[in-house]
Amino acid sequence: MKKIKEYILITIGLVFVAAGIEYFLVPNDLAAGGVSGLAIVINYYFPSISVGTFMLAANIILFFVAFILIGPSFGAKTIYASLGLSGIIWVMEKFFPIAKPLTNNLLLELIYGILISGVGMGIVFNQNASTGGTDIIAKILNKFFHINIGKALLISDLVVTLGALITFGAEKGMYALLGVILNGAVIDEVIQGINTVKEVKIISSKNEEIKKFILDELGRGVTIYYARGGFTNEEKDMLVVLLSRREFIKLREFIKDIDERAFITVSNVHEAFGEGFKSFD
């Protein structure tokens, strides 16, 4: 069931990526990095080679790198994601093509294209997969040098951006570079937003009821610290729990109903590993 959910999420992400590329970047010759950007450059010189076809051929070569350096799990998902992305783009080119850009505003097209495709790529990356191409290089940099995915993608895409500058001129080349920078930022924000959980610290006279609610109703574990007030010298228990946004809202409403004098602090935790959260894989 978990695997099915992962592949469904990857597919949803791929649709976003394909739409951003095919309907915003390709019609405007905006080669904003990646194999898709390289495909746009190649398509300019060799119109008979479609963007989807070139992406498929290039990604097949890079699959072996993913298997060897990152592992079979990442490689298998990347094969699915890359073939899926190439296939979706091919379907869009074949059955839902557009003859010209949607608007005459190049900057607007770039922003929407990057936002849509960046959200999709963030979803795919978060499932320990990749849309292929330079994303594989970015994942390798992330694994071995602990560079954020967005920044690693920026590094790996600079060569493609240079090719866009030479092919389409300085203006579109600079737009492409801006697109690469925005793309990295969007991906990091999406991944961070998906993985962020709430660390909630609670001091209340109703700790037993609150602990029971967390364990029984939310299905989460709770840690108890012994705290002493600096002003009153009074000793109390402090409950600490990690929750999703939705779970935190339920807990907040429950505490509000039983103890309006409770003291609560909430912090964002960007990633949590272990039971009930992400696995270490």
From TrEMBL:
Keywords: Cell membrane, Membrane, Transmembrane, Transmembrane helix. The keyword Transmembrane helix applies. The chain crosses the membrane at residues 7-24, 79-99, 106-125, 145-168. It is a multi-pass membrane protein. Residues 220-274 form the DUF2179 domain. It holds the Pfam family DUF2179. It is found in: Cell membrane. This is DUF2179 domain-containing protein. GO terms for cellular component: plasma membrane. InterPro entries: DUF2179, N-reg_PII/ATP_PRibTrfase_C, UPF0750_membrane, YitT. PANTHER family: UPF0750 MEMBRANE PROTEIN YITE, UPF0750 MEMBRANE PROTEIN YITT-RELATED. The keyword Transcription regulation does not apply.
